[in-house]
Amino acid sequence: MSERIVIAFGGNAILQSKQKGTVEEQRANVHTACLAVADLVQAGHQVVVTHGNGPQVGAVLLQNDIAKEQVPPMPLDMCGAATQGQIGYMVQQSLTNILRERGMARPVVSLVTQVLVNSDDPAFTSPTKPVGAFYSQAEALRFSTEKGWSMKEDKARGGWRRVVPSPDPIGLIEKEAVLSLLQAGAIVVTSGGGGIPVVEKGGQYLGVEAVIDKDLAGERLACDVRADTLMILTDVPQVAINFNTPEQVNLGTLTLDEAKIYQGQGHFAAGSMGPKMLAAIRFIEDGGRRSIITSLAMAGQAVAGSAGTILHK
Ligand code: ADP
Ligand code: MG
């Protein structure tokens, strides 16, 4: 059966934590990820791709910081747009090449995507998401007065970092464009890095310095394109309860109610599995058929129903 599937790649699909971030490393990882996408396309599914951008936007921010005396630094929304472009380009080229090799040429297109957030979102009064370089306490103080940045100490890694709000996504501004492209048979890469956060003011969209969680944005994307399945690909084959303890139990198929009970018991860590499970739960609550959380290697089997953690009504 042919399905419309939104695939959300985690940071690891593009850059692994032990890697340096060279273009060769990123291309090789993206190629592996695109092989999994191509398999699903070949199986007859309609695919929409979204992805994280943590390491890439970190690199752009650092470049800005190092070059600031010569090149005016760009705000976070501009850096987000730049990384959507660079990652989107890698996916476009890699997936196009794989599909051509397999004799099933299809248009692959990446879209610079804005995601609407509420300017009254409580996240704006309590920034939580660390971005960019590490600074000394003196620098941190200076940036907070000069630029109005919120700074937070990361004791474990011995430095101060800027923290930005992580508001809840409402929906894609480019939703209709994505739907038209899908209608035309394209494979669309969209809402990268959770999308560029924008607020609406006096009928105008304005970029804001914030970061949207890519899994929660992926859920909005899946609703916006009326996907059958939201598939979140990360570096573990299944979600677990009592994760990383002797009592760990991996979860296969589970109902919405079961997922909410485990969520309430605090099994899914904030900042990693937490937002993925929240996205999976929201998608079912919003009328989606199926949410899958699994690894890249298990993607095909999970869509066929025989691997991963699968959430349904
Ligand atoms: P990505 O970069 O793909 O978005 P994250 O690193 O943010 O992925 O989240 C995936 C990680 O979540 C896993 O590698 C695992 O260490 C961690 N994790 C936290 N809680 C759980 C859980 N209950 N079950 C499985 N993995 C968990
Ligand atoms: Mg990660």
Helix content: 25-40%
Number of strands: 17
CATH class wording:
Alpha Beta
Strand order of the largest sheet: 3-9-2-1-12-16-17-15
pLDDT averaged residue by residue: 96
Distance between the termini: 19 Å
Small-molecule binders: adenosine-5'-diphosphate, magnesium ion
Largest sheet: 8 strands, mixed
Helix segment tally: 9
How do the helices and strands follow one another from N- to C-terminus? EHEHHEEEHEEEHEEEHEEEEHHEHE
The fraction of residues assigned to DSSP E strands is: 15-25%
CATH superfamily: Acetylglutamate kinase-like
**What is the fold-level CATH name, i.e. the topology?**
Carbamate kinase
What is the domain total for the residues?
Answer: 1
Q: Given the helix and strand composition, which structural class is it?
A: alpha/beta
What's the short version?
By secondary structure, this protein is of the alpha/beta class. It contains nine helices and 17 strands.
